[in-house]
Design a protein that fits this description.
The complex is a heterodimer of chains A (about 350) and B (about 325). By secondary structure, chain A is an alpha/beta fold. Chain A contains 12 helices and 12 strands. Helix content of chain A is about 35%, strand content about 20%. In chain A, helix 7 links the parallel strand 7 and strand 8. Chain B has about 325 residues and is an alpha/beta fold. In chain B, about 30% of the residues lie in helices and about 20% in strands. The mean pLDDT of chain B is about 90. The chains are: A alpha/beta (about 350), B alpha/beta (about 325). At the A-B interface, helix 7, helix 8, helix 9 and helix 10 of A face helix 6, helix 7, helix 8, helix 10 and strand 13 of B.
Chain lengths: ~350, ~325
Amino acid sequence: MAQQASQQVPQRAAGQAPGVRIDSLTVVYKTPAGELPAVRNVSLTLEPGTITGIVGESGSGKSTLALSLLNAVQPPGRISAGSVEIDGLGDVVTFEGEKLRKARGAHVGYVFQAAQNSLNPLKTVGKQLLDLGRSHGVEDLRGLVREARELLGRMGLDGARVLDSHQHELSGGMRQRVGIMLALVLNAHLVVLDEPTTALDMITQANILKIVREVHAERGLTTLVITHDIGVVAEVADRLAVMYGGRLVEQGPTREVLGAPKHPYTRGLINAIPRLVGDIDEARALPGRPPTLATVPKLGCVFRERCAVRMDVCDTDDPEAVAHGSRIVACHAVTVKEHA
Amino acid sequence: MITGKGITKTFKQRGNVLGGREVHALRGVDFSIAKGGSASFIGESGCGKTTLGRIIAGLESYDGGEVSIDGTPMSPLKPKQRQPHFRKIQMIHQDPYSALNPTRTIHQTLYAPLALRAGQTGRSKAWIEERAAEVLSLVGLDPGTVLARYPHQLSGGMRQRVVIARALTVDPEMLVADEAVSMIDVSLRLGILALLKDLRERLGVSVLFITHDVATARYIGDDGELYVIYRGQVVERGPVDTVIADPVHPYTQSLLSAIPVLHGLEQPGEQPVVPVESLNGAQSEEGCLFAGRCPFRTDRCESELPLLGVTDGFPQEHACFHPERRSVIARPMSEV
């Protein structure tokens, strides 16, 4: 088994899925126009053992938020406020150097966007696995290889063959599974999957999502899935969080959010999904376009430019994220309605 | 009107030790797209749908069969003679970020093909400017704000609209849209799809839509034909809504079963089809091309190749020995 002991990183009880509490997190990027927030005042709790899905369009800050879980936001970005508390680990925002490096991989597994491209083309998967083991001070490398083969076998691959392959010999779906294996092989119990099925075919996507669900349950993980595709979240996630312009605008149990979205953006996004049956004119594109780092309004609600229920207060005040039962929504119109 | 009969295309890969390997990208495909009509090719990557699209746009040669544009067969013609025919068919690529020259303003991008057109038809410079503004308006962009901009100053959705506008400069009769919305933000995709549909209705341009996302294929027009392609063979073909609502080929059923269900809004289909996954990835060339992954295969499927055709009881064409209706797609909660 992987040895992940280190004096600096406290040990967590084995087999226990950690909870994560992101509190008032703000991540800014340095630009010629000053420091602009890519993630603004985001609070999100990942309950132990659940799958949470974050949905957002390009530039919504979802990947930046995910990287914060590893405290891995690259310059010119930096976490300017807030905390990311991981059970058994502490606030990773305060971690640095060796302690941070050890926490990554051993405690938090990360499957990168386009895992297809995140493998080293010059080395076999097995060699990269050994590199990973050595850099984390794993003594029993044979055990690590055995574990990797088991994981790959579990995901329907011929482990020995895959470990002997270079990335170009593997299909997109196989590389994605290799990415998942590398994220889990050090026995991390918190896993972040960034766009796990982008660029995969439908049938392969369905297969990967099934694997994500099963591995999540079998290994007792806390999983975070980042995607632009609501369908992916609908398939795997227990809870759904919607990001727009750096803000978390709505979160709640997946079925509830999909069945009865409260935030106008969530509603618009769901309405914009092409459907297989029913009247094709029912689906509608949202007017306008998503904001970029430079065009996010400094004052007021980030969504107001495209919003159908815009009020005067939206121009001046950024809506607070307010809990309405099991749902947390950041919208003035919703707050007014719920408290009426 | 563009038709194809028995189109085949084989790519030869150079081998190192064991000699070359042949990839059959297309194995005798027939198609026909009427003027002003629409068709969608769906299938997984590597099924040959893009190759077929490129052949139709005149960007790729074919080994066998014949493509005819408005009744004129293309293969006897010299490349120069083909040009005016293929000019009528314009391609819209997947990635609007790399399809536009980043060092040219939108004005420059549109000016070049329009100047060529003006030269051919003896029109004035003023016409070029007028037409540039016109094609931008056609795609829903404001010429005043867009013309002077560079591609990086536009969003993905706007860029794709510029790409479509550029295709319109040469008065095409058909647009071939290859995964044209897959790189566009979710909230803006429908806008591009609606635009393509709108261009069909207003200008009578036919649209060929190539995608792996079945649901988007419906939005080009419900009068369109859907071609489901697997390993270079059309395995099911019929009106879009018929094939989606009532697929009979197990491969089509697998594709539709794989579409994520919006739990909370939709009820999953009762008989989802999950293809068998081959561990070694080797695919048999004998019998039905899908047999190796088909959960319903019989001995016959492994030795004999089913051909596309109509059988009793099903409105669409299919290439399966054992066609059967199965309830695979998710339905809205309100309907069940």
